[in-house]
Sequence to fold (455 residues):
Amino acid sequence: MKTIIEPFRIKSVEPLRMTTPAERAEILARAHYNLFAIRAEDVLIDLLTDSGTAAMSAEQWAALMRGDESYAGSASFERFEAAVKRLMPFRHVIPTHQGRAAEAILFSMLAAPGLVIPSNTHFDTTRSNIEAAGAEALDLPCAEAADARASHPFKGNIDLKGLETLLRADAGRVPCVMMTITNNAAGGHPVSLANLLAASELARAYGKLFIIDGCRFAENAWLIKTREEGQAERAIPDIVREMFTHADAMTMSAKKDGFANIGGWLALNDDDLAREARTRLILTEGFPSYGGLAGRDLDAIAQGLFEIVDEDYLRYRVRVNEYIVERLAAFGVPVVQPAGGHAVFLDAKAMLPHIAPLAFPGQALAAALYETAGVRSCEIGSVMFGRRPDGGEAPAAMELVRLAMPRRVYTQSHADYVIEAVCAVHERRKLLRGLRIAWEPRALRHFTAKFEPLA
Ligand code: F0G
Fold:
């Protein structure tokens, strides 16, 4: 059979509330054109994020009942730790309440003023945690990443030459090298195994820790299996294990490829670093056998980690995005290619050339998508990355709008509806106007900033 189906059936449903364009225009104005300020009830299809929004399986719900809520040494922790180590063979696994808590602990140990931490592209919370510790977060994406329509299979790769130049010139200022798989902030593209291994070798040649932000490790492994030469016959867990064997540490948000609604971890090999991390964990998260989570959350993650590496699931997961990208491209919509693992990215800079980067074309497009069809998306451009640590403002490298797919939540007809919505906005793109920021917070402004449409 050629048709790729959702490899599950639905046992429990949540109704969607319909709204009219006129209602949504009012809701949008009341939210100051920030989609984070809209009530979820007022959203028809919520593609704001794939984080914590997955539908858990019947087995995961059953696992919740097995949760052991003992303060110390719970059986849930043992199941969680074993499930992580089965895929990622680190010596120490330290649970946290989500990914950014693992980042905060890691960079409170590794980052300091004067230091620089390179990555293929830091996600916003990673960048902010590094900057909060006074260090510089340096993005070194490969050259192909800048061309939204280049068909390179691994546009998530790090620029190895750039990394080597940095290490050769300034190794003393680099405490570690990071790799984000998949590369969320630069279009959701995967990193190839070859690139990952080369970056790891470089880091280790200079005596630096090599750290993986593994949020979407299973999607990255699937894209290695299907796109990288010599990998097609390998099992997904095998590819996953190889990726992490070459790392000294990892940060993880189980809200992505953990199939969980909350959770994360920091894993390390170094005993001294792990000891220090656990001390900091107790201050901010909790005892090392629960780290800010309930025992039942640890069990949901343990079960999720078995399900996420299923090939039928991953095939369907990636195919949905490919389908949407193919349809949009055929309609002439500027969309980032090839499709990544967790999201479809629209190229707002190409779609709305009449809106200057600092009038936020991505935000304008996201607002229009909501008003037209009730679809909530997320700007990944100059709103998210335009404010520099020194207080200045500069356009981001790309102006993207991300349609992030919650895992196992929406169906094929939802995908068709989203395609129709994007095409409808694309047809009247010349009428869209930019925005200005009327208020913004000190950091991570995209979450709470208030906007006004430009005249
Ligand atoms: N790293 C990456 C690559 C991420 O995408 C995220 C979260 C984090 C770290 C932080 O994890 O949310 O559990 O604290 N990304 C979400 C998103 C929020 O919408 O892309 P967290």
User: Anything to note?
Assistant: The chain has two domains: 21-50+310-453, 58-307. The mean pLDDT is 96. The longest strand covers residues 92-96.
